[in-house]
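Predict the structure of Outer membrane protein assembly factor BamB.
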Amino acid sequence: MREVMRWKHAALLALVVLAAGCSSNSKKELPPAELTDFKEEVVLQKQWDRSIGDGQGKTYNMLTPAVEGNTIYAADVNGIVMSLDRMNGDVQWKKDLELPVSGAVGVGYGLLMLGTLQGDVIALDASTGEEKWRARVNSEVLAPPANNGDVVVVQTQDDHLIGLDASTGNQRWIYDSTPGVLTLRGTGAPLVTNHLAIAGLSTGKVVALDTQNGVPVWESRVAVPQGRSELERIVDIDGGLLLSGGTLYVASYQGRMAALELESGRVLWQRDASSYAGVAQGFGNVYISMASGTVEGVDERSTTVLWSNDALARRQLSAPEVFSSYVAVGDFEGYLHLLSQVDGRFVGRTRIDSDGLRARPLVVGDMIYVFGNSGKLEALTIR
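Done. Here is the predicted structure for Outer membrane protein assembly factor BamB.
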């Protein structure tokens, strides 16, 4: 087990090196691309901001806030959890779990759910912050648990999926999967429907389980490990899954992006891609933040690349998010960039947090929420 963990920490270092732009045949790392001036067409205006403890902390955490109704929830690495009015940022409740939170936050059906480095899963009452239950799983939880009102599904760092009773936290089932020899640090959050629990694995596969018993319903391979070294064979699905209608969109590192049929896992289309951040969908297109720092817009019907913007090369981009007529993406210096959905040109930019933006932006209506690495949570609109 210790050997596996050493491999995983080495993979985290590899991610940093690769994101900085080191190629396989180059002895010198290329620096992150310098930002260039452009004609600003859109102005982002801050509506409010709040500090959420120490934010992501010093390790490579991906603590993403969650929105339900008029409330936004966020947690920091040390266990501070806050419920805020999403319209004005007013604090509704605050709780200190005094635990190293690593998977945060999932919300739904009256529960706010978090995971920890020690393998704790904690469920709080979403309206009051009162602890409802906690459960222990077999490994660290690096992504928010998901809930369909009956079952809470947790994905651990070692590619196990666990179904917990949503009322009590008692374990109902567990799905075992052998992770890749070398993986990136992180997992995408599972998705849960009324009858399916879907997750992307470090082996480049997507699996769908029956939520009642954890039995596999289908399995689909998105990426095939290739290369001579274990580093070259990393194909993690870490950017999470995106469900739109009956279609599931997914991207892997050093593999492919693909569209899958939700009920069967059948591959509708796929194309080569490498991403550890994830995808967004809108206007009939799929948008992807590549590991190289390139942002692409792909027609979801023909899989044709409509545009590609490489001006953010090696800037360690967050997952993209569709905001109005634009694509929003954050970078390691804390800039939030807006790109046109039509042709990918820059239309707006603002700096949120000098410590960087790693978490995916959240969009609800005409407001975008951005959680900086230092713990600054900011809500913005387009002026």
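Confidence is low (pLDDT under 50) at residues 1-26.
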